[in-house]
Amino acid sequence: MVDFQQLLKSDLSVANFEDALAHPYLTSLHDISDEPICMTPFNFDFEQHALTEEQMKELIYRESIAFNPEYQRM
């Protein structure tokens, strides 16, 4: 049995996601035969840029406007 409180702790070594997905509570939501497989590794190099607080705010603003253009600054 998986203790979901353990998954909320910062040290994830005490529980893993495979155990969590195998928990009876999630049985109806997880089908092991329908598990997606990533054929190529993700590249997160774009996240390695050192950004100022203002640059980060601008990026967050642009991302939110992409989904909610009606809130764009005039």
From TrEMBL:
Q: What is the protein name given in its UniProt record?
A: Mitogen-activated protein kinase
Organism, as annotated: Solanum verrucosum
